[in-house]
Amino acid sequence: MALPDPDPGSRPEAIQTELFRALAVLRALLAVYVVYLNLDRRHDFAHPGLAALGTAVVVLWTGLAALAYESPWRHRAALHVVDLGLVVGLMLATLLTHSEVMQERNAPTLVSFWACVPVLTIAASRGALPAVGAALIVSAADLATRDEPSAGVLRTLMLLLIAAAIVGYGARLVERTADAELRAQRERAAFAERTRVYREIHDGVLQVLALTGRVARDRQDDAELAALAREAAEQEATLRRVIQDTARIGPVGSTGSIGSVDLVSALGALAAQSPGCQVATPAHECPAPAPLAEEVLAATREALINIGKHCPPGTGAWLLLEAEDDVYRLTVRDDGPGIPDGRLEVAAATGHHGVTGSIRGRIADAGGTAELTTGTFGTEWEFTLPRPTAEGE
């Protein structure tokens, strides 16, 4: 059936939003850890009041940052600079808050692991290289607070650099994938609309041009009609070339109608418009979703038009609808001379897509299959279509 219109919002933007929200949760959890850590070692600080102020700033900025990264400000480099600068400033405040004993045992900085969040945020927003740069700045600030960094501290800083590179690269990869998917979805939607228009052209304009050309050619004694025949033939050929060059028949969309259509009454009305066409249907209604019914009826109409166009006068035509448990089977049959071998391939190659597009393509879009049987006995189409469930009816 119809392809949905692409989401008007940016999918990469939505992915980035989810990443920022996850990082906001991480920032909050690490802020809780900072509060616990600094409360636990409050008696070790050289300046407990300054340490308490720094801890309060951590809590306050955690809330403000969560709001800021939900706003359009998150796209501005200034927000990342402020975020990173605040963390570096609080880390350097460790030189004032930590006592000599704390320095000797390489105690965690005033903000501890909370310092990694701005780095990961830059990674999610800007990519690997800016994130690695931010990780180096944070690492330099951490090392500046220590006399002799321990192996554990160095390992932690190395992990921060690795995490910045991996998260940054992964974020860019996910966004590129989402971009490619969004472009493909837009191309499918555009292709679907383009092909739908081509079908309408085939079912309307091309049919009129072909009919005009045939009628005019039958009156070769009239110079004006002969000129009209030539003009109609040229316009038909040009239009078919345009269709052939700019589209390949494939999945297409419907008109988007809603509701339900009774196939029994619709086929009866369609048969009434085709002289000599007989119809056999179940005695009860056979409801189908309107988009599916539109495609099926359009394909059936095209098959009946082909009978009138390519078969001798007086050729019989029949429509047979069968309602099985889970499918509808619709047969369109005639007793004409049949389709010569290779005729459909030649038609498709020259831009005549009545069978491939207006019949097979429509039935495929309705979720069904179209089988063609032809020979000296005539031509028969069998459309197998999904039948709606009781709830859908």
What is the number of strand segments? Answer: 7
Class by alpha and beta content? alpha+beta
Mean pLDDT: 79
Which shape, going by the Cα principal axes? rod-shaped
Low-confidence stretches: 1-9, 245-257
> What Rg is obtained from the alpha carbons, in whole angstroms?
36 Å
Number of domains: 3
In which range does the helix fraction lie? 55-70%
Strand order of the largest sheet: 2-4-5-7-6
* Sheet having the most strands: 5 strands, mixed
Give helix and strand order, one letter per element, not per position: HHHHHHHHHEHEEHEEHHEE
The proportion of strand residues reads 5-15%
The number of helical elements comes to 13
Distance between the termini: 17 Å
InterPro entries: DUF5931, HATPase_C_sf, HATPase_dom, Sensor_HK_TwoCompSys
Domain DUF5931: 15-170
Protein name: DUF5931 domain-containing protein
Domain Histidine kinase/HSP90-like ATPase: 299-388
Characterization of this structure:
The protein has 3 domains: 11-180; 191-246; 260-386, 2-Layer Sandwich (Heat Shock Protein 90). The chain contains 13 helices and 7 strands. It has helices at 11-40, 48-68, 77-92, 94-97, 100-104, 116-126, 128-144, 151-217, 223-246, 263-272, 290-310, 343-349, 354-365; strands at 260-262, 277-280, 287-289, 317-323, 327-334, 369-375, 378-386. The strands form 2 sheets. The chain has a 5-stranded mixed β-sheet, covered by helices on one side. It has a two-stranded antiparallel sheet with strand order 1-3. Helix 11 (290-310) packs antiparallel against helix 13 (354-365). The longest helix has 67 residues, at 151-217. Residues 299-388 form the Histidine kinase/HSP90-like ATPase domain. It comes from Nocardioides fonticola.
